[in-house]
């Protein structure tokens, strides 16, 4: 019989860090500043006169359109990227342009100065570059953090809805300006269900997932002179967790887990036709046929020199040698040990390898030797349909963080990347009893409760609307709304019953994971088989009093998710601007974080078996002493860290599933996660079901 716990309090994940409060700002001033910023983000493709803009599709593709004035020297490389073209953080020349424009914007001391600088250059620089840099500086600069960035779904609707649907929306509103019905986005607009892979289109093309990926690369930029704590490790962990969630979704459809690319010379089995357009011109993203073979590329139109497959293979071989040799060499030839148990809490090997693989030339220990493997791989695949510009085709969707997760090959590429990191992780020793245990603390029982039903979570379809007319100019003033259908679930609570047998209070970190119980063949999984399927659901700090403790934790407080996307209209109405103190406003999220509506996997209509794993660890060991300044963006700390601060958990990301299991504990052989949990009082597992109910899901 499931029991209902009484209410209890728990500290948030970031509680041990002290938050410095900012001096209050009048709400009317903040609203004015927010309005100024929204105007900069609205209709980014409009021309110098404020009207719509169209770019030719022939020889003059991407011709820069400006006021005719000479670009100020302060813009540096910012004007090197043509207007109307795709901006990609995976391309080094584009990153150089972004750095110049960010440095130009960073001169602003307040919102007014930022607005003046932005208006002076917006018609001289690439539109997507402009929005990226504007967003980056607002997040980075403390003086500008009072304002919020509107959702990228409305700023660039053409990255989320097909050209056909956007054109339909424009035609409908022109025929009937009084129309109030939204345009419904078809979940199958990029392909039919003839191909099994297309069963996952709703997941890969979810607006929240792709928005998260865009924001993640915004707050973890490459070569922007930004030193984010444990950036390389977060690169590894966040992408590994996305793969685990994708694999859970595949199992929900009785599909096999994703297979890695076996190299860069084998044909890419799955093609991709995004049906998206780059900008107001209607120019389509590049497409890729099934069984496309990758080739060396040279795209001078994108500022790319010659990129050879042989170079990528050489970089990979050198990185793999470093893993197997246990050290990596810097530019001076010094050997840097690779270990996740560095002395004095030094930089872990996984962090060093992440910086070298992604790669950031400013953070990699030896960029010329280990190369730019991850970024170049994205570029190689994104131009596979037109590697030499012979057909004048645009870059593919996998070349932009806002659209790359739509492509099935994104997951095969990142499975290839993750297998490299797992090769390193398997070189590390298993955790010992001291690291895994927590004497004096016992988890008695755990469970989940959704709408009064224990241990049976329900998922289904929900809908969300956005205004396409905020980003694209349809030639009218009437709002054009797009309605997206997406996976969702009702909120639920975790219930934990914990005994503290110590004579005093004890601060602990609560770690919650979820994984499917059965593999593709319907068999229970070993620890090693299930290890990469454990997805972090939540992590938080709480204080246990002596004796029994009953905790209730809402799924809405997850350490990996961000609140729903905030729209232009909501910001205009004053959402999060007039409520609370300035400190409360600055404590809001910055857009980075897994979408809350995608926290749970789909499950199956008949119910799908999952396992919940809860582990308590000693916060005295976990804590990281630091001071958080300004708006820390802590809603999705496990995936996004804390802005300008250290990652608030000293243990390796993914602990305890980031390493192989101990072969034996206390004389008992360990072959499954359940057998591991049975050896420690601070761990417990619970079987739950997730049932997909489709359109029968009750709206929250």
Automatic annotation (TrEMBL):
Tell me the PROSITE patterns matching this sequence. HEMOCYANIN_2, TYROSINASE_2
Drop me one GO molecular function for this one: oxidoreductase activity
Among Gene3D superfamilies, the record links this protein to: Di-copper center containing domain from catechol oxidase (1.10.1280.10), Hemocyanin, C-terminal domain (2.60.40.1520), Hemocyanin, N-terminal domain (1.20.1370.10)
Q: Where does it reside? A: Secreted
GO CC, any one term: extracellular region
Q: What's one Pfam family the UniProt record gives for this protein?
A: Hemocyanin_C
Superkingdom is Eukaryota
Which InterPro entries does the UniProt entry name for this protein?
Answer: Di-copper_centre_dom_sf, Hemocyanin/hexamerin, Hemocyanin/hexamerin_mid_dom, Hemocyanin_C, Hemocyanin_C_sf, Hemocyanin_N, Hemocyanin_N_sf, Ig_E-set
Q: Where is the Tyrosinase copper-binding domain positioned along the sequence?
A: 407-418
Keyword Metal-binding among record annotations:
yes
Tell whether Membrane is among the UniProt keywords.
no
Keywords attached to this entry = Copper, Disulfide bond, Metal-binding, Secreted
The residues forming the signal peptide are none
Q: Which PANTHER family match?
A: LARVAL STORAGE PROTEIN/PHENOLOXIDASE, PHENOLOXIDASE 2-RELATED
For this entry, the protein name equals Prophenoloxidase
Organism, as annotated = Macrobrachium rosenbergii
């Amino acid at each position: 019989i499931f029991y209902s716990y009484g209410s209890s309090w728990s500290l948030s994940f970031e509680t041990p860090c002290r938050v410095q409060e900012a001096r209050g700002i009048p709400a009317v001033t903040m609203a004015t500043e927010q309005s100024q910023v929204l105007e900069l983000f609205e209709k980014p493709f409009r021309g110098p006169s404020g009207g719509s803009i169209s770019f030719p599709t022939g020889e003059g593709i991407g011709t820069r359109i400006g006021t005719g004035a000479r670009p100020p020297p302060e813009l540096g490389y910012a004007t090197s990227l043509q207007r109307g073209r795709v901006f990609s953080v995976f391309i080094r020349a584009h990153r150089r342009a972004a750095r110049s424009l960010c440095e130009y914007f960073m001169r602003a001391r307040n919102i007014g100065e930022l607005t003046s600088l932005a208006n002076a250059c917006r018609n001289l620089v690439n539109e997507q570059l402009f929005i990226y840099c504007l967003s980056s500086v607002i997040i980075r600069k403390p003086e500008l953090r009072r304002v919020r960035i509107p959702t990228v779904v409305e700023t660039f609707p053409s990255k989320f809805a097909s050209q056909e649907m956007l054109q339909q929306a424009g035609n409908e509103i022109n025929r009937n300006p009084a129309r109030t019905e939204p345009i419904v986005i078809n979940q199958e607009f990029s392909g039919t269900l003839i191909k099994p892979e297309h069963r996952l289109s709703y997941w890969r093309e979810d607006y929240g997932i792709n928005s998260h990926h865009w924001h993640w690369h915004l707050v973890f930029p490459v070569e922007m002179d930004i030193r984010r704590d444990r950036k390389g490790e977060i690169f590894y962990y966040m992408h590994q967790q996305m793969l685990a969630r994708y694999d859970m979704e595949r199992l929900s459809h009785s599909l096999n887990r994703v297979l890695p690319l076996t190299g860069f010379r084998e044909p890419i089995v799955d093609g991709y036709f995004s049906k998206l357009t780059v900008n107001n011109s209607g120019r389509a993203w590049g497409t890729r046929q099934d069984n496309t073979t990758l080739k060396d590329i040279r795209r001078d139109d994108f500022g790319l020199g010659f990129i050879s497959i042989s170079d990528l293979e050489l970089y990979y071989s050198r990185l793999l040698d470093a893993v197997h040799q246990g050290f990596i060499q810097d530019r001076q030839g010094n050997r840097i040990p690779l270990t996740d148990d560095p002395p004095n809490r030094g930089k872990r090997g996984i962090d060093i390898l992440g910086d070298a693989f992604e790669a950031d030339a400013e953070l990699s220990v030896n960029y010329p030797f280990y190369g730019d493997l991850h970024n170049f791989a994205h570029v190689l695949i994104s131009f596979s349909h037109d590697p030499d510009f012979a057909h004048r085709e645009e870059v593919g969707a996998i070349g932009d963080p806002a659209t790359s997760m739509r492509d099935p090959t994104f997951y095969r590429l990142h499975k290839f990347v993750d297998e490299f990191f797992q090769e390193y992780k398997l070189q590390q020793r298993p955790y010992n009893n001291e690291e895994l245990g927590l004497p004096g603390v016992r988890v008695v029982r755990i469970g989940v409760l959704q709408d009064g039903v224990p241990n049976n979570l329900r998922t289904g379809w929900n809908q969300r609307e956005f205004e396409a007319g905020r980003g694209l100019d349809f030639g009218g003033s009437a709002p054009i709304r797009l309605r997206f259908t997406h996976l969702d679930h009702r909120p639920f609570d975790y219930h934990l019953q914990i005994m503290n047998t110590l004579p005093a209070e004890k601060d602990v970190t609560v770690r919650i994971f979820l994984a499917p119980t059965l593999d593709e063949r319907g068999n229970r999984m070993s620890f090693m088989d299930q290890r990469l399927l454990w997805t972090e659901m939540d992590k938080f700090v709480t204080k246990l009093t002596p004796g029994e403790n009953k905790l209730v934790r809402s799924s809405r407080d997850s350490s990996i998710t961000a609140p729903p996307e905030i729209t232009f209209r909501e910001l205009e109405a004053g959402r999060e601007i007039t409520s609370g103190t300035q400190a409360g406003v600055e404590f809001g999220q910055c857009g980075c974080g897994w979408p809350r509506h995608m926290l749970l996997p789909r499950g199956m209509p008949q119910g799908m078996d999952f396992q919940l794993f809860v582990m308590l660890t000693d916060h005295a060991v976990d804590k990281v002493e630091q001071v958080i300044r300004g708006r820390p963006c802590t809603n999705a700390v496990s995936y996004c860290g804390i802005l300008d601060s250290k990652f608030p958990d000293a243990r390796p990301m993914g602990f305890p599933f980031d390493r192989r299991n101990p072969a034996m504990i206390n004389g008992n052989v360990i072959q499954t996660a359940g057998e591991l949990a049975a050896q420690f009082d601070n761990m417990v597992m619970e079987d739950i079901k997730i049932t997909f109910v489709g359109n029968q899901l009750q709206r929250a």
